[in-house]
Write a structure and sequence with these properties.
Number of helices: 3
Structural class: alpha+beta
CATH architecture of the largest domain: 2-Layer Sandwich
Largest sheet: 5 strands, antiparallel
Number of strands: 8
Helix content: 10-25%
Strand content: 35-45%
Order of helices and strands: HEEHEHEEEEE
Number of domains: 2
Strand order of the largest sheet: 7-6-5-4-8
CATH topology of the largest domain: GMP Synthetase, Chain A, domain 3
CATH superfamily of the largest domain: RimP-like superfamily, N-terminal
CATH class of the largest domain: Alpha Beta
């Protein structure tokens, strides 16, 4: 997807008081889905997703993000969302995270800080610096 289209999508989402979390294109049952995931302080509800979806549909009709037919889906990334980019980690400071670390396995801790090289999480009262290159998989973690 072109950066100009992504930037325009982010501006539309911002105009509703939300933030663009991520955009992904997936194929499910032979359908191509353009999934726009949003976050908002206080949470995302169905009405917000519908409002943003209507506005994005108008924009994307004039500025198609891809050549093939697709279905637009606007949603929250969920309470236990994947963390794949530095800004995902940045938006999750203060939350519990579950990480799979190279040569160490799984650890769960409180995300305290993020920089260009990695993250700092608190595990059992001790701060640990972990480089992004060590992280195989990461997501926010909610104790049910």
């Amino acid at each position: 997807m072109k950066n100009e289209i992504r930037d325009s999508i982010a501006k539309i989402v911002d105009s509703f008081g939300a933030k663009l979390y991520d955009i992904e294109t997936v194929t499910e049952f032979d359908d191509t889905i353009l999934r726009v995931m949003i976050i908002k302080e206080g949470g995302v509800n169905l009405d917000l997703c519908a409002d943003i979806s209507r506005e994005l549909s108008l924009f994307l009709d004039v500025n198609p993000p891809m050549e093939q037919a697709y279905r637009l889906e606007v949603s929250s990334p969920g309470i236990e969302r994947r963390l794949t980019k530095p800004y995902h980690f940045q938006n999750s400071i203060g939350e519990k995270v579950k990480l799979k670390i190279t040569d160490e396995g799984q650890i769960i801790g409180m995300l305290k800080n993020v920089d260009d090289i990695g993250i700092v999480i608190e595990v059992d009262g001790v701060d640990r610096k972990i480089n992004y290159s060590q992280i195989n998989k990461a997501r926010t973690y909610f104790e049910w």
